[in-house]
Amino acid sequence: MSLNAAIASAAALLRNAQRPCVLTGAGVSKESGIPTFRDAMGGLWSQFNPMELASPFAFQRDPKLVWDFYEVRREKMRPAEPNPGHYALAALEKRFARLPIITQNIDDLHERAGSTGVIHLHGLIARNKCYAACQGEPTLIDVSTLTWDASATPPRCPHCGAFVRPDVVWFGEMLPPLALQAAKNVIYNTDLMLVIGTSGVVSPAAEMPFVAQEHDAKIVEINPYHSEITPIADIWIEARSGEALPRLVEILETGG
Ligand code: APR
Question: The pTM is what?
Fold first, then answer.
């Protein structure tokens, strides 16, 4: 199927959808210049393996090393702006009563583009929380109000004195229960899932398109490369999301 035909077919499915939803991964933020976790492991950090930096064990062993790794990632992500793919999804939300976006991304580019129903499965890198969850999970901490010796340690929780950590899901950790429950409610009820920019290898997000399909949802994938989701996609739009999504929205709006 040509790219134009795939986008037109996806638009036809969307036109008939009652409860569409979106699942996004690192690919949707790629055109905003956000380094993926694998990219972030390059350079100075290439001597470490991910378990040494992104796990509770790593943080217990060397809190400053892990804190610094996330500070560098934040610094690299700071200049990033939403790209045309994010804006197109926000425009699409206006067409439907709601358009839940389940994302594995820890940036806030969907929200900054104007999407309102974003479910963050893996947390948000801009936020921090108490490692001990002393006031309940998550105990969010605004570190801009704290002073600490950054050359020595991460900041300390003002309530209990435990270290502060980024509010992201690490290897070996549970997903935030409320986000996971919200995502399940979406995938059990959707009739069309747009799967954008995810390789489909990290659970449980990787299973979500399969579960949605078992519940009779159509699956439309946008990814320039074959993924684990491609074999089950009703339509595969083989293109970058920043290119395909604006075209999809335009066809929907113009009826073309
Ligand atoms: N538009 C759409 N898709 C793209 C683009 C683009 N411009 N560029 C790349 N892709 C696709 C790739 O082909 C790949 O299938 O995006 C996907 C990115 O895959 P991953 O890097 O594995 O990202 P993701 O699926 O989000 O990974 C899940 O793994 O690294 C951990 O916790 C991290 O949330 C992340 C999780």
Answer: 0.95
Residues 79-121 have pLDDT tens digits of 999 999 999 999 999 999 899 999 999 999 999 999 999 999 9
Q: Which residues contact 42 (CB under 8 A, 6 or more apart)?
A: none
Question: Using CA positions, which residue lies closest to atom 5 of ligand 1?
Answer: 27
Distance CA 152, CA 74 (A): 19
Please tell me if the CB atom of residue 104 comes closer than 6 angstroms to any atom of ligand 1.
yes
Classified by CATH at the fold level, domain 1-32+82-122+175-256 comes out as: Rossmann fold (3.40.50)
Q: Which two tokens stand for residue 144?
A: 């801009």
Tens-place pLDDT, residues 181-191: 999 999 999 99
What is the number of residues in the chain?
256
State the Cα–Cα distance between residues 60 and 105, nearest whole angstrom: 24
- Chain region(s) in the chain for CATH 3.40.50.1220: 1-32+82-122+175-256
For the cut 90, the answer to whether the pLDDT of residue 45 exceeds it is no
Catalytic sites, residue numbers: 122
Q: How far apart are CA 251 and CA 107, in angstroms?
A: 28
Q: How far is the CA of 26 from the centre of ligand 1 (A)?
A: 4
Residue type present at position 97: A
Q: The dihedral of CA 216, 123, 117, 178: what is its sign?
A: positive
Check pLDDT > 90 for residue 247: yes
CATH number of 35-79+128-168: 3.30.1600.10
- 166 CB less than 6 Å from ligand 1? no
Does the beta carbon of 83 lie inside 6 Å of ligand 1?
A: no
Is the beta carbon of 35 within 6 A of some atom in ligand 1? no
